[in-house]
Specification:
- With 141 residues, the protein is of the alpha+beta class.
- 33% of the residues lie in helices and 22% in strands.
- The protein has four helices and five strands.
- A five-stranded mixed beta sheet has the order 1-2-3-4-5, sandwiched between helices.
- The longest helix has 16 residues.
- The protein is globular.
- The structure holds coenzyme A.
- The site of coenzyme A (COA) has 20 residues, from strand 4, helix 3 and helix 4.
Length: 141
């Protein structure tokens, strides 16, 4: 497939239902559910963090590119099945990197499940190797 040029922009509140719908069908099998209210809170509290990629007026991809004041973190990357392997995720990540760089980030972490081979292939290609020195430690609140 040839590369296309999706239009990447910050999501608005009106985009949230579409993003929920996209994640329902296109998110990684390893990702937890994405409640609509959480995305609405994200768009309201941290405008510019939720990015969407549009092709021919439809949302075909999504990425959370979050700045926490210290590092950049990427979550919830997903592209509609029929729009894959056309550079949409690459474009989303590049836009996320541009945003994070402007905010002051010098390092960006992508959260990827260990056994997600498709995600691993993408993040390897995007220049995000596994950090052999660091493991994630997590507590649920
Ligand atoms: C992972 C995902 C976001 C990639 O989106 P995409 O728009 O198809 O990615 P791109 O077209 O920008 O791919 C860039 C490069 O990544 C690699 N890549 C992407 N998908 C791949 C796959 N299925 N198998 C092997 N390599 C892959 C390739 O090197 C590709 O370049 P190429 O097409 O020239 O070979 C998409 O497959 C997806 O939504 N998967 C389900 C959700 C998911 O796993 N998200 C990541 C969670 S961390």
């Amino acid at each position: 497939l040839t590369s296309v040029t999706p239009f990447v922009r910050a999501a608005s509140l009106e985009d949230v239902p579409g993003v929920v719908g996209l994640l329902a069908v296109a998110a990684s099998d390893y990702a937890s559910a994405t409640p609509k209210s959480d995305l609405e809170r994200l768009v309201t509290m941290m405008p510019g963090t939720l990015l969407v990629a549009e092709l021919h007026g439809a949302i075909v991809g999504v990425l959370i590119a979050a700045w926490d004041g210290w590092r950049g973190n990427m979550y919830r990357l997903a592209v509609r099945d029929e729009s894959r392997r056309q550079g949409v995720a690459t474009k989303l990540v590049e836009a996320g990197e541009q945003r994070l760089r402007q905010l002051g980030a010098t390092r960006v972490t992508a959260l990827v499940a260990d056994s997600d081979v498709v995600a691993a292939a993408f993040w390897d290609a995007a220049g995000y190797p596994i950090d052999a020195n660091i493991r994630r430690r997590v507590r649920s609140l």
